[in-house]
Design brief:
This protein has 136 residues and is mainly alpha-helical. The protein is 55% helix and 7% strand.
Length: 136
């Protein structure tokens, strides 16, 4: 099927499909005219790409993992246990990122908690800091 139909069937924009191809994630056949020709199997490939992107993996990692993944119509899973170290490493990377975001949120919560309630602002102090204060 040609790109327009493939895009409609996958729900993925043509621009993004071209990006997947540039990254080596998708390899459609080419007609003599140069048009891309997608196979039914490419639908599963795009579903796999979308699942792995949603799991927080980048396209470079997906390019290495995708050829070893199988989809049983319900879940995308590694075809062999040799992929587990890579998947565990990616999970640790995500855990680290989540911990960093939680620490940032906690720091912001402390700043919020230490801020005087509305109406208690000293307009002169706020002006000195360059903060506009609405008349109360």
């Amino acid at each position: 099927m040609r790109m327009g139909e493939f895009s409609r069937r996958t729900g993925v924009s043509q621009r993004l499909l071209r990006y997947y191809e540039e990254q080596g994630l998708l390899r459609p056949a080419r007609r003599p005219s140069g048009y891309r020709e997608f196979a039914e199997a490419d639908l599963a490939t795009v579903r796999g790409i979308r699942v792995l992107l949603a799991a927080g993996l980048n396209t470079a990692t997906i390019a290495g993992l995708l050829p070893c993944m199988v989809e049983d119509g319900r879940i995308l899973a590694p075809a062999c246990s040799g992929m587990l170290p890579d998947l565990h490493r990616e999970r640790e990377r995500i855990d680290t990122a989540v911990a960093g975001l939680l620490a940032a949120r906690d720091a912001l919560d402390e700043v919020i908690a230490g801020t005087a309630p509305a109406g208690d602002d000293d307009p002169d102090a706020c002006r000195a800091a360059g903060i506009a204060v609405a008349p109360g």
